[in-house]
Structures are given as structure tokens and as C-alpha cells.
Design brief:
It is built from ten helices and 16 strands. The N and C termini lie far apart (44 Å). The chain has 355 residues and is an alpha+beta fold. Strands 8, 9, 10, 11, 12, 13, 14, 15 and 16 form a nine-stranded antiparallel beta sheet that branches. A four-stranded antiparallel beta sheet has the order 4-7-5-6. It is 26% helix and 26% strand. The longest helix is centred in the middle third of the chain and has 18 residues. The protein folds into three domains: 65 residues, Rossmann fold (3-Layer(aba) Sandwich), CATH 3.40.50.20; 59 residues, ATP-grasp fold, A domain (Dna Ligase, domain 1); 195 residues, D-amino Acid Aminotransferase, Chain A, domain 1 (2-Layer Sandwich). The structure holds adenosine-5'-triphosphate (ATP) and magnesium ion. Adenosine-5'-triphosphate binds next to strand 5, strand 7 and strand 13. The site of adenosine-5'-triphosphate has 17 residues, from strand 5, strand 7 and strand 13. It is an enzyme of class 6 (ligase).
Length: 355
């Protein structure tokens, strides 16, 4: 098997490495500052766990490398401006938006987008960072240097958030997981749940949207599409050209995890449809120290990233996958007292979904 180099050595690179191991695929997650000579990239397929990167000796080398999967697609998706333009050009539904380039636009923005607008940095935002929620009057508090660097989006009164994780290979074949239902709090993903039998109508809508995007880009690998549910249709929130937090449940809830699927796609290995036979839950561990008590629950799979624990930092996740919904609910009930109080509402949201 060809080795794989992953640009970035955070948790996604780590989980790609773990997924490659049983298949005999050596995955090297590499930090941006690594010495190019120390990285075996010459004979590897290259992928990334991040969407943009500064120029370093290593990234300059990789930018020229032919075996860098999706090399020229990253800049189109890492910047919200060309990403939104791509979605519009394909006629796919997304939250109405405009480029925010001048403070004098505000009266017209409120008139066209409504009186609740979300300003998002074009580049570099994540986990809700680099965003401002603006109602008339708040705009004066925005930093002045953001003009030109942000888009303004209509705040969508959604009934729920879902994401679709899928993959496309070199020949253009696409496979998808069932939609994942996601709960975000303060812009950060707290919990996800997926079911083997998803609402056919939304699933089909999402698959049509994501395949159109992947085909247009001739994308190879796993891509995630985050959506808002409004009535019975989907609006695209954003796209991620990589494995995604909302797909972490697939490690324990699908016959092929999103990490293995990504490796298969970029190495052009067989890529059958991943089977999902039971409901799966993922709980993000955010700024919380490890607690061995979690391991006393037989349905809990702990994925710990071995990162320094800091507030608002994703440091691990818990996966639970089981065919009996009542057993799952029972485990979630037992988990609540084993986690800090801020987890309670997220776990209750999951329990509600299992009803
Ligand atoms: P990620 O960590 O997924 O990359 P992010 O920080 O890049 O997230 P978004 O996904 O754009 O940012 O926004 C984070 C969350 O904020 C969304 O999941 C959603 O809950 C809320 N949000 C974002 N845009 C809107 C919108 N237009 N209307 C309503 N809520 C929104
Ligand atoms: Mg997001």
C-alpha cells in the first residue's frame, strides 16, 4: 500500500493514521514546520486535515506535488467567498449572503438579509470563532479591519442542523453515510446522532447537493456538507474538504469509518457503500479532563486526542453505537453525572432524538 502524508498533525491526522493501520497503510501526519527532508512525501499520496496553511519550507514543496489529492480545491473552499460563489453557481440553496466590504452597506444589508445577520470571517474561522451576530445598532461595534475580510449572512431560523459526509473516487463514484443530526452550542459542535434509516427525502436532497459539488470540483476523498433544515428542505451552511467532526461516529457505527473511507478514496482502493445498522451517538469532549469512569459503561468508546486540556478546546469524543435505543438512552442517562453540567442539555437533546 502506498503511504499517505497528512498535512497537519492534530486529531484528524491522528485518526487517519489509526484507520490506516489495520489495512497496512502507513499514514504520516506532519506538522507544518517539519523539515521537508524528514517527511517521506516523495512517494506518498498527500492529503490534509486542515483547509489552509501558511507558506513554510514543507508546504511550498507539497504545493508542487502532483500526488496531493485536491491540491487546487482547498483554496476554493477555505475562503467563504469562493465557497459561497460555487454553491450559488450550482444553483444550490444556501443562507442568503453578501460580501461585506464597506461599513456603509449596513442599511442595505439589513433591508435585504433581515434584521439578524451573521458576519463570518472569510478565512480561518472554526468552532464559531471569527463570527459576530449582528442586529441593527450592533454593527458599530464590529472591528473596522474586517471589511473585505468577511461575508454577511442571513441568520436562518432553522428547525435543526444536519451534515452529510460522503466520498468520491477518481472514477466519479460517490458513497454517503446517513445524515448526521448535529447540536451546536455557541458555534461549537457538542453532539451528533445518526440513524441507519434516514428521512429519505432529506437524504436524497443532501446527496444530490453534495454529489453536484464533488463532481463539479472533481473532488477525490471525503467531504462534509453542513446544512440547516428549514421546513422540508436543506440550506447549505458550509463545506469542509476533509474528514469532519460530525462524521466521528462512523468509527464505531459504520462498516467503514470516514477516515478509512478517505484513505480508500485517495488511494483508489475499492469504496463500497458503508453499512450502518444501528443508531450512533457522538459526544464531543470540550475542555474536559479525561475521566476513567466513562470506561465503566460498556457501550462507550472513548477517543482521546492526548492534547492539553484548555477551555473550549476539543480534546476527545465519546462514541456509542447500539441497535437497542433504550440501552443507548440508559447509557446516556448514566453518562450525565460523569460529565460536567454543561453537557447535560446536549445529552438530553440526544435522548430526545432517540424517542
Ligand atoms: P466549524 O467548526 O463547523 O467549521 P464554523 O465556526 O466554521 O464551524 P459555521 O458552521 O459557519 O462556523 O457556524 C457555526 C454554527 O453557528 C452553525 O453550526 C450554526 O449553529 C450557527 N450558524 C452559522 N451560520 C448561521 C446562520 N446563517 N443562521 C443561523 N445559525 C448559523
Ligand atoms: Mg460549521
Amino acid at each position: 500500500m502506498k503511504p499517505v502524508c497528512v498535512l497537519g498533525n492534530g486529531q484528524l491526522g491522528r485518526m487517519l493514521r489509526q484507520a490506516g493501520e489495520p489495512l497496512g497503510i502507513t499514514v504520516y501526519p506532519v506538522g507544518l514546520d517539519a523539515e521537508p527532508e524528514a517527511v517521506p512525501y516523495q512517494n506518498s499520496v498527500i492529503t490534509a486535515e486542515i483547509e489552509r496553511w501558511p507558506e513554510t519550507a514543507l508546504t511550498q514543496e507539497l504545493a508542487r506535488h502532483k500526488a496531493f489529492a485536491n491540491r487546487d480545491i482547498f483554496p476554493r473552499l477555505a475562503d467563504r467567498l469562493p465557497q459561497k460563489q460555487l454553491i450559488d453557481s450550482l444553483g444550490l440553496a444556501t443562507a442568503p449572503w453578501q460580501l461585506l466590504s464597506d461599513i456603509r452597506q449596513w442599511p442595505q444589508l439589513f433591508a435585504e438579509l433581515g434584521h439578524f445577520v451573521i458576519v463570518k470571517r472569510r478565512i480561518g474561522g472554526y468552532d464559531g470563532r471569527g463570527q459576530w451576530r449582528i442586529r441593527p445598532g450592533d454593527e458599530t461595534e464590529l472591528p473596522t479591519d474586517i471589511y473585505g475580510e468577511c461575508i454577511a449572512e442571513q441568520a436562518i431560523p432553522f428547525s435543526g442542523e444536519v451534515s452529510l459526509v460522503g466520498a468520491r473516487n477518481e472514477s466519479g463514484d460517490c458513497v454517503f453515510y446517513p445524515l448526521t443530526h448535529n447540536l451546536h452550542q455557541d458555534g461549537i459542535l457538542r453532539a451528533s446522532i445518526a440513524f441507519p434509516q434516514e428521512n429519505c427525502h432529506l437524504q436524497q436532497q443532501a446527496q444530490n447537493m453534495l454529489s453536484a459539488i464533488m463532481h463539479e470540483l472533481k473532488y477525490v476523498g471525503v467531504m462534509a456538507m453542513e446544512c440547516f433544515i428549514v421546513d422540508d428542505h436543506l440550506l447549505i451552511n458550509e463545506l469542509a474538504p476533509r474528514v469532519h467532526n460530525s462524521g466521528h461516529w462512523t468509527q464505531n457505527g459504520a462498516s467503514i469509518s470516514q477516515f478509512e473511507l478517505h484513505l480508500r478514496a485517495i488511494l483508489d482502493l475499492p469504496m463500497p457503500h458503508p453499512e450502518v445498522t444501528a443508531p450512533s451517538v457522538m459526544v464531543n469532549l470540550i475542555g474536559t479532563d479525561i475521566n476513567n469512569q466513562w470506561l465503566s459503561l460498556p457501550l462507550v468508546h472513548l477517543h482521546w486526542y492526548e492534547k492539553e486540556v484548555r477551555p473550549a478546546r476539543k480534546v476527545g469524543h465519546l462514541n456509542l453505537s447500539y441497535s437497542d435505543k433504550n440501552e443507548l438512552k440508559d447509557t446516556l442517562r448514566k453518562l450525565i453525572p460523569m460529565l460536567p453540567p454543561e453537557y447535560q442539555s446536549g445529552l438530553e437533546w440526544v435522548q430526545e432524538k432517540l424517542n
